[in-house]
Amino acid sequence: MTTQTWLLVGALAAVAACTTGPVGEAAQTTSTTASARADGRSPLALARAPEESARSFEGEVVERLDAGTYLYFAVEDAAGVSRWVTTLRTTSAAVGDTVKVNSFGVRDEFRSKRLSRTFDRLHFGIVRKAD
User: Fold this and answer.
1) Residue 6: which residues within 8 A CB-CB, separation 6 or more?
2) Rounded to 5, what percent of the chain is helix, strand, coil?
3) Which of the chain's ends, N or C, has fewer CB atoms near its CB within 10 Å?
């Protein structure tokens, strides 16, 4: 990973850990997540590493949701597989854009309180417009 990528990863973790309420996305329905919040860990702390094939992927943004300091993207690859990704609001990617995603964590049944929505599977990552 580049220095810029590590800085963004650190910033995402720091913002998630320091923010409370809906913007922090830490309010969850599971007791595991509640205990993680109680001990100060960010939602990313409970994420597992993505499968090798999902660590880096490219696709078209088919949906974009704004949630405070976070953006959520549904990214569909060339095979028609769609994945949800969340990132800090550091990209200008819009619906119809082709993006590259570097995923550094995955959560199942992730509840976004701000969006009042549960994502079956959510990648935490860096989203950039493809060249």
Assistant:
1) none
2) 25, 40, 30
3) C
How many domains, the chain?
Answer: 1
Amino acid at residue number 66: D
Residue 25 has pLDDT above 70, yes or no: no
Q: What is the model's pLDDT at position 93?
A: 95
CATH number of domain containing 39: 2.40.50.140
Q: In which domain, by residue range, is 91 found?
A: 3-129
Helices (runs of H) and strands (runs of E) counted in the chain: 2, 5
Cβ(43)–Cβ(26) under 8 Å? yes
pTM beyond cutoff 0.85: no
Partners of 73 in the beta sheet? 64, 85
Give the pLDDT of residue 43. Answer: 72
